Every structure is written in C-alpha cells, then in structure tokens.
Amino acid sequence: MHPTRIQLAADDIPTHWYNIVADLKNPPAPPLGPDGNPVGPEKMLAIFPGTVLEQEMSAERWIPIPDEVRQAYALWRPSPLCRAERLEQMLGTPAKIFYKYEGVSPAGSHKPNSAVPQAYLNKLAGTKRLVTETGAGQWGSSLSLAGQIFGLPVRVYMVKVSYNQKPYRRLMMQTWGGEVIASPSMHTETGRKLLAENPDNAGSLAIAISEAVEEAVSVPGTKYALGSVLNHVLLHQTVIGLEAKKQFEKAGEYPDMIFAPCGGGCNFAGVTFPFLGDAAAGDKRAQKIRYVGVEPASCPTLTKGVYAYDFGDSSGFTPLMKMHTLGHDFMPPGIHAGGLRYHGMSPLVSQLYEEKLIEAVAVPQVATFEAGVMFARAEGIIPAPESAHAIRACIDEALRCKESGEPKTLFFNLSGHGHFDMTAYESYFAGKLEDFAYPEQVIQASIARLPKVG
Amino acid sequence: MHPTRIQLAADDIPTHWYNIVADLKNPPAPPLGPDGNPVGPEKMLAIFPGTVLEQEMSAERWIPIPDEVRQAYALWRPSPLCRAERLEQMLGTPAKIFYKYEGVSPAGSHKPNSAVPQAYLNKLAGTKRLVTETGAGQWGSSLSLAGQIFGLPVRVYMVKVSYNQKPYRRLMMQTWGGEVIASPSMHTETGRKLLAENPDNAGSLAIAISEAVEEAVSVPGTKYALGSVLNHVLLHQTVIGLEAKKQFEKAGEYPDMIFAPCGGGCNFAGVTFPFLGDAAAGDKRAQKIRYVGVEPASCPTLTKGVYAYDFGDSSGFTPLMKMHTLGHDFMPPGIHAGGLRYHGMSPLVSQLYEEKLIEAVAVPQVATFEAGVMFARAEGIIPAPESAHAIRACIDEALRCKESGEPKTLFFNLSGHGHFDMTAYESYFAGKLEDFAYPEQVIQASIARLPKVG
Predict the structure, then answer these.
(1) From CA B379, how far away is CA B388, in angstroms rounded?
(2) HSE toward the beta carbon, residue B123, CA cutoff 13 A
(3) Which of A43, A51, B216, B320 has most Cβ atoms within 10 angstroms of its Cβ?
(4) Is any Cβ of chain B less than 8 angstroms from the Cβ of A71?
(5) Which distant-in-sequence residues (6+ apart) come within 8 Å of A160 by Cβ?
(6) What are B7-49's pLDDT values in tens digits?
(7) What's the whole-number mean pLDDT along residues B366-381?
(8) Cα A198 from chain centroid?
C-alpha cells in the first residue's frame, strides 16, 4: 500500500539538538542592557537557571538531549512526516507536498518540544516552581504538561481577555495541574498598579510577561520559562527538522522548498535549522533548498520590519535584542493566529534572513483560512491558524508548479491542530474575517520609535 | 530507548475486517418488525444501500477491506499501542498497562473507522448523499469527514441542545463540509409536527434519528448511516483489535484483561472481537483473557438491563432488536459521556454477554473523571469522558494488582481525546459533577414497559 505517513521508531528520536550558532558566518549580536552594554549572565540568572543559560549561550554544534527528556518526548515523538496526496490531487499540481505533523503532541502543537527540556533543566538546577505567561494558551498548556511530567508546579499568567474567551485552553492547563491566573492580577506589583488605574484592564502579552518575570525575580526558587524567540528554545525545536531529514531519507525524497509559520521564530527554526546546518557543512542539496518563513500580512516582521536592536516586550522590560522588528510598541491587529502576533523575531532567524540564507513571505488572513479549510477537507486534519499560514504559502507554490509544470517537492511544518481555534473558523465561514494591514506610515512611525542604542 | 509506543507501518493496516458472527455458538436473533416477524432486507434497503446490508447480514468470517478504504484509513491508521508506564509508576502497581489510542483520527475518536467504509460503500452503491444524526457530535463529525473524502454531501441532524452548547463540534462538521441542522427542524414531518407543538423543543437523539431516517426514506438518492449498535459498524471497528494483536506480538506482550467503554457497543467490539475470534478458534491465551465492558452507573445497560427484544430508539421507530436494554423509554441522566447514554446495547455484544464470554462493570461519574485526570497528568493525553470509563476500570484493576502483587497485563481502548469535552472537566474541577443512579424500581418500571413480542 502506498504509505501516506512516514513513521520512525522511538529509537529514532534525536539524541542531540542541533545548534546553528556553531555554523553562523558571524557571531550572534549579544543582548544589550538599557545602557547599551552586553547583558551579563548574572542578570539572566535571576530569571533562568544556569542549565538553561548554558544552552542559550552555547556555540557547540551538537547538544545532547538528556535521556529523561527523550523518554518524555516518546509520549508523542517521533512525529509523522506525511504526504498530502489528496491535497495534491485537489490542486491538480505536479508538486509533491509533505508535511511534518506536530499536532500529535498532547498539547496539540510543537511547543512541548521546548517546554519539556525547559522543565527538566529547571528541575535539574533545583528550581522549585516555574512561572510563565501565555496568550492564546499553546505555550501555557505545554509548560503545564511539562511541569507535571517532572513534578514542578507551574503558574501561568494568561492574558485576561484570552482567559475569559478561551476557557478550553485554560481548562487544559488546569487538567495538567497548571495554576492559571488572569493577567493583570493582584499577585504582582505590575498587576496591582495596573488594576488600581483600571480595574477592567483586559491585559496583554507584554503585561503578562512583566508579571511572570517579576514573580520569578522576587520569589525564591521560582524561575521563568519562555516559549519562543531565545536561542535555547529554537535549539530544542530542531528535533522537528532532525526527524524530518531521516524521514525524507526513508521516503527517498528531498524537499526543494520548506515553509513554516514565523511568529517568534521557533517553529520555523525547528524545521529548517537542521537542513541549514547541512547546507553550512557543504551539502549541495540542502544549499539548493529555499527556506520560507511565512508571516501574517498584518504583522510583517521580516518582510517590512527593520534589523535593529529592540526590546522583546512592548514595555521595554527585557534586554535589547538585535532582530527584525516592527518596533516594540507596534500593536499587531487582533488576528486569529495569536502565536504570530509578535512585533519582533528571534535574533537567530533575523540574522539568517539578513544574511539572505532564508526568505520570507507575508500572507493575508482570509486566504490563510481558505487554505486551512482546503487542507482540512483534503487531509482530515484541521490546522491551527498559525500553521495555516505555511499551508497558504505552500499551496500558492503548488499552484505555481501547476502553471509551470515543475514537479517540485514542497514541505511545510504543520505545527499544530485547530481544535481550540474553531471559533476562528466560524468567523471565516460567516464571512467576518478581515484582511488588515497597517498603512506603511504606521509601521514607519513605530519603527521610528525604536530605542537609540550605542 | 524504552519504547512507549508500538507503531505499525501503513502495510500493517488490516486487509480484512473480522466478523464475529461466523464464530458465534448460536445464530444471532433476527431483527423483528412491529408484527413480530423478521424484518426482510427489502425494508432495510429503503434506508441502507445493498453494499452495507450485505455486510450487516454476512456470516463470512473475514470481509475484505476495499483498497480505497485502507488508503483513507492511512490518514491516521495504524493507531499506536502505548504503554502507560508513567501511570503504572503513579499507581505503584506491578501491573503493566497498555492502551490503544484511537484519538489520533482527524475526528479524535474511533468513529471514523466505520464512517469511512460506510461512506465508501454508499458511494459504490450510487448513493448521492448521506443523512445521519449526532448527539455529542463524534459521529456527525466522523461522517462529515468521510463524506468529504469520497465526495458525498452529508447532512447531520444534531440534537438542538448540543447544537447550541457544543459549537466547536458543529464547526468541525462544517469545516469538513457537513451540513448541520439543529433538530427538531422544519426539514421533516417529524420536526415540523414537534415544533408546532412546542417551538422551544430542545431535541433528543431519538428525534434526530427519526428526522434522519424520514429524510433517507423520502428523498431519492439519500441513505442513512448509523454510528454504532449494528453488526456492520462493529465489524468495521475490528481494525482496532486486529492492529492491537500485531502490536502485542511485536512488543512480546499479551493482555490478561481488556477494558473498553460500552455505550452502543462498537468501541468494545472493535478492540475485543479479534481476540474473542482467536478464543473461538481455540487459542488458549485468548480464552483466558477477561473481556470487560465498562458502562456508566447511571446507564447500566449490561449490568442492570434485561436481554429482550426492544426498539433501538425511544419512539419505537426502528425494528425490534434482541439486546440488553433498560427499556426504550429509559431516560439516561445527563452525564458528560454522551456516547454512553444509550438505553440498549448492540445485539452482538449482548449475545456474547448472555453467553458469558464477556463481563461488564459499571462505574460512577466522579470516579471516572478522577481517573481521566490521573491519566492526563501521567500520560499527557486528556481522555474523552467515554474513554475515561475504561481507564477507571483499568486503574481499579491495577490497584487490585498492587494489593495482590499480581503483575497482570491490562489493556484498554482509549477511544478518543477530550478536546471538545473540556467543560465536563471544568464541572469536575468545580466539584459540580454528581454520581447519579436511578433507584432500582425506576429501572424495573422502564423494563416493564418493554414491547410484547411473539
């Protein structure tokens, strides 16, 4: 029978993560403090344990995955590589379409790939409890699960408007034992101050980050965990691409193009970095691959942002990172792909983009959901709105192949399912979704407010 | 590395379904009409196509699975067999616990195992569109998906109260192209009559069945599809147990006990019938297995019902079937395991129970959710409330093993995930769930109203 899914065995779960820092042409730009000087590890140690910081700053090419982490990965990994033959037929394209399906994780996305090692590394370092923030809930539920696996209590500051509008995600965290707090809350100075000013403050990701970091700094034994952007998070996600390489080998295929949604960058990095590593090592096929980050037209960080030092949060609380950014006070419109509503981009992905090793494309919201529904009807799986961005770009290329007759092999990361995003599909079916993009001058004005550095 | 999941390849998808009718000691009791005479195929042909009826009435032991169906199965099958080692450790039991995970299907449960062949067989027979009913939405979404795969439009009559309370399941059906109608509706005589009497009628599964069957009978080219109870549905589900046998062989293990939720019976049949077939063929190990159907204490069909002819629906519209029943007008309490709220039981499962080849146990609701949460925290997967019934019974046995020191091998069917049932978990966490069981005299009174036959 024609195999639709290429499976690997538990033994095929990678034994090492791939660290692209070892293969960069130029060293990564260091994070800077408000004074313009590099931030030392001692400051970072207040919120992250040494075990995590060591990975964050490592230049080693291969970093061993602890046995305990591999064993926890085995709850859902290796994830399948699938061929979307029904979608190919629906499109009438000569292209072959493959996708890696990360929605098989208990949390339904790729996020546990980093939540699990972060919880483990914290446990190892003696951390007593973890705090984090969550917007749509993907990261908060992944960390709740990971904390449960390694016996670490997890508190999640969840943006209040999501807390109220997304009860299912909140309940998922609670089922895994996570403590979920609507943010802003009375648990922190930040929250108390904001609620005193406005008791109806609906919260934002930036506020939730501030609350979580404040608690990590002030409560002994408590550390903070972040779900994207930073080097160690991207590192952990490389299990996706490492498995995919084995699976393509097993299938006797090789991608011409790789597509992944691009929000903070960990999804894109996870699937592409191992191939980029091969390219850096001289693999001619990997050098020929086109690596395409797909972002929402409403939050076009790579395609319309600048490469500059900026804050990671909107309130200027974090160190300055050199990255593609729309400006830290850029307010992404309320699109349904909550995971892609971020003004900045991981510094590593930004550097690769700047060095022209990767590409980016921006897609509008309505066309994205159209692609998501096409995929669901062809392949069964209802994709998360974030993942649907990669599907849109992949379908567009498959349709170009139909025009040109080129039998390209296209590959995208289906980073998660949409079981908790069905109201977004409802809006799409009801014709209520909008394609929104800020006028150029709004973006330019936001960029003009970037902090002055050096 | 220690394998947690036993995977099979696409080629391992069974080539034949196993039909237990070939191995029954006594022939199955025929369905009867209101006159007490067996219902002939000509009456059934008004609602089912010949291709389906042929399977319904077959006594062949092995029925080939069409290539088209196997190819569609390959979208998610073979499903994994997993060892719940973290749960074993949490319980401190010497028992080994295995589960087959059917939640990997796009619809999130075992239901597509029959929806897919039913849609295919209808397509083959020239059916132009399908109608069905759905309560909680599992079956309706599975048939919507299957219809989409084979190009058959699907209309689903969804119990109105669920239509309003479970928008996510409804949206899932719509995403797959299913047309979802709140029942009672103005589309049928049945619906119009009921709405004329009471415009606020909230609907029931019985009413939705009546509407779907009425439409199948009256609209040319339209056929009806049922998601459990009937022989052909149980037949289709045997892919679960057939795969499990291969997986146990691969793992070098063998179950001492098998647990499955028991509502209409297709879940239980799917996992146990292939082992029971081995037992019938003289396999001593299979003969030693204890086969345990797990039902809710609030709807104890096998444990408290009688074995008698009764209607399949509450309004007396269907043929009479010989089965375990609480009486067709027994009103199951509003527990969260909607899939187990059925007054009757599949005739095949009933016969096996009557012949003492299988056992049954009833578990209360609160303890069931407690088991579901334990499982979620240990293994990551949040189980559907229906599946949590099997988990409860399995955990109880594992705890007995802890007392006795017996290292039994326990196996249960994790028939689906709970992503669309999170509000049930919310009620559990809030302490709002109740253990409800009718007093004995209520059940006896319902049974006393059984139709008189012959």
Answers:
(1) 13
(2) 19
(3) B320
(4) yes
(5) A182, A183, A184, A201, A202, A203
(6) 999 999 999 999 999 999 999 999 999 888 999 888 889 999 9
(7) 97
(8) 32
Provide the β-strand partners of residue B62. Answer: B18
Interchain CB contact of A89 with B (< 8 Å): no
A46 has a chain B CB within 8 A of its CB: no
pLDDT of residue B207: 87
Is residue A89 within 8 Å of A374, Cβ to Cβ? no
**Chain B residues near residue A373 by CB distance under 8 angstroms:** 175
H or E, element range at B237: helix B231-237
Sequence-ordered list of residues with C-beta below 8 angstroms from that of A136, at least 6 positions apart, any chain:
A162, A166, A169, A338, A339, A420
**Nearest in space to B71 (alpha carbons), one of A135, A110, A1:** A1
Residues 6+ apart with CB under 8 A from B181: B155, B156, B157, B158, B187, B211
- Tell me, yes or no, if B5 comes closer than 8 A to chain A by beta carbon: yes
Average pLDDT estimate for A221-231: 96
Instruction: Note whether B400 contacts A: Cβ–Cβ < 8 A.
Output: no
Tokens of A151: 């016996």
- List Cα–Cα distances, A348 to A63, A253, A265, A451, in angstroms: 17, 28, 8, 20
List the beta strands (DSSP E) in B114-270: 129-134, 154-159, 179-183, 222-224, 257-261
For the CA atoms of A166, A169, A174, A175, what is the dihedral angle to 10 degrees? Answer: 130
Q: Which residue of A has its CA nearest to B378?
A: A149
Distance of CA B97 to the CA centre of its chain: 22
The single residue listed with the structure tokens 């890696």 is: A100
A171 neighbourhood in chain B, CB within 8 Å: 422-423, 425-426, 429
CA A384, CA A111: separation in Å to the nearest integer? Answer: 13
User: Does an H or E element contain A224, and which?
Assistant: strand A222-224
- Facing residues of A323 across strands? A308
CA angle A415, A158, B366 (to 5 degrees): 85
Neighbouring residues of A23: CB distance < 8 A, sequence distance ≥ 6 = A61, A276, A277, A280, A281
Which two structure tokens, joined as six digits, stand for B312?
Answer: 């399949």
Across the interface, whether the CB atoms of B4 and A75 are under 8 A apart is answered yes
In sequence order, what DSSP letters do the residues of B305-345 get, joined into one string? -EEEEEESSTTS-SPEEEEEES-TT------S-GGG--SS-
The sign of the CA dihedral B259, B264, B269, B270 is negative
**A5, A75, A373 ranked by CB distance to B10: nearest:** A5
Cα separations in angstroms, A448 against A20, A300, A434, B156: 31, 16, 27, 55
DSSP characters over A368-410: HHHHHHHHHHHHS--B-HHHHHHHHHHHHHHHHHHHHT---EE
Contact A95, A410 (CB under 8 A): yes
Amino acid at A102: E
B3 touching A, CB under 8 A? yes
**Residue B70 backbone dihedrals phi, psi, to 5 degrees:** -60, -40
**How far off is chain B from A145, nearest CA to CA, in Å?**
7
What does pLDDT average to over chain A?
94
Determine, for residues B382 and A172 on separate chains, whether the beta-carbon distance falls below 8 Å.
yes
Mention the CATH class of domain B4-10+76-108+238-448: alpha beta
User: What span, in angstroms and rounded, lies between the C-alpha atoms of A190 and A314?
Assistant: 14
- CATH number of the B20-65+111-231 domain: 3.40.50.1100
Single out the residue of A450, A433, A287 nearest to residue A365, CA to CA: A433
Residue span(s) of chain B under CATH 3.40.50.1100 come to: 4-10+76-108+238-448, 20-65+111-231
Residue A149 and residue B71: Cβ atoms within 8 Å? no
Nearest Cα residue to A47 out of A165, A163, A210: A210
pLDDT one-digit tens code per residue, B224-283: 999 999 999 999 999 999 999 999 999 999 999 999 999 999 999 999 999 999 999 999
